[in-house]
Amino acid sequence: MGEQGQHRAPDGAEHDVDDARLASLGYQPQLRRVLGLFANFSVAFTYLSPMVGIYSLFVLGLGTGGPAYIWLNFIPIAGMLLVALVFGELASHYPVAGALYQYSKFSVGPGYGWFVGWFYGLALLITVAAVDTGVVTYFAALTHNWFGWGLDPTSHLTILWITVALLLIQTILNITGAQVMGRVAQFGVYVEIVGTFGIAIILAIHGFHHGLGYLFSTQGQTHASANALGLNFHGSWLGAALIAVLAPVYIYYGFESAGDISEETKDAGRQVPRAMRLAVIWGGIASIVLTAALLLAIPGDGAKGVGDAVAGGVPAILGQLPSGVQDFLLLMIIFAFFSCGTSVQGAGSRLAFSYARDNALPGSSWIRRVHPRFGTPVNALIAGAVVSALFVLLVFASPATDKHFGFITYPGGVNALVALVSFGVSGIYLSFLMTVIAAVIARSRGWVPEGRFTMGRWGRVVTWLALIYLALMLINVVLPTGVSSPRAYFNLDWITLVVMFVIALIGAVFFAAVRPDRALRRHLHDGLEDSGAERPS
User: Fold this and answer.
1) What distance in Å separates the CA atoms of residue 280 and residue 285, rounded to the nearest whole number?
2) Domain count across the chain
3) For the whole model, what pTM was predicted?
């Protein structure tokens, strides 16, 4: 593995190389190259967001696997690092906005690429809705502490107005330029550092309640009699681990967004692959450090201590800290959710722009317009915000009792947005898997990566290992095992697969009626593949 062309060129020369490569793929530069490595990394890192992931999923990891679940982090870290290497090689060869869609389109063909982008794009829009609704609980707690407000975070109306207000602010900031998006993400990185390493240090100074050996124990969570969530793994750590691993699995993605903003990144062929790798590595380090600190800070011993921590969540652990520190942490958590949503929205708008530039969407001429002053795809941002807001309305659809549809049961008390959010993860893994399959197909056809980052002789092995990891984890994410199964805490039995099927069906109907792949065929030229063509250097 290596990076070609180690001597850096002046910014102007780098722009020329980037733009020449874009032209060889049949595109003229329309977006502004204003982001450096740190800004590109920041967008990817804040999308991955260790804080958002851990504060959302810590209880489920602890309740299914006990403290020892922390070591399961290494599985998705290693797996996604392999995926990041594959994506990095593709991003360096195809440094185009739209990332996975473009990689698959050029590697396999227009129809295949269109479906990869369809699944990935909807997953992004759903993720924005999920992240922004996730901030409501913390916002309600902070406003109660500061102003004495009594907002009910479970109220559908409260969820709606807070989420729409957040979407509006994020959209305005993203419209005003890629630099603004980058600065929000960069500040988000500093918040993540304080919210992970900083909190770990504060908890350590305040005093841990356990030694390091605690991190290697299950505290009885593999037995129904002691499990904090009432789950029964019949004493099997392997059975518990298969479920508990989903807590970190749901964290380690988002690094691919570095590729979505390739056309706004300086020296994209070199810096985007680097940003992807760094986002996974540092995301993993931050997640493990914060998780370890939270586990060691759990008050009480044995299953009762774990049970109390699961019942009270992260706030119960942090409740040991002074009230001022708690309020400061709430503020950081809110900004972490905000910067995460901002980055995801920015990545999604570049995908929509990339689609529309290929005339692959209804209203493409309107969606692909770039604002002459801000240099951003304003209409794509607005359209994405509207769709995400419409998804939020699904919180109002919440049946009081179980609904049965043949062998499928929709659990009562679960709103439709939660069911849709399951596709936020399964859709990402599906589009990742399809993109890696595209890389395998491209290599079998004789494709040779010629970007500034290549894996060399390791490319084929790494690509196959990434494919195996993604396939196994996608199965683990969507496997229907019953609404009373421990897995139901992560997916809703058959509902996750039903959502995937419905989204695929809608895409298939649209594809058959409109045939967007015909327009895509006009955008499949790659100058590097021409006989005698020379790679820009």
Assistant:
1) 9
2) 1
3) 0.92
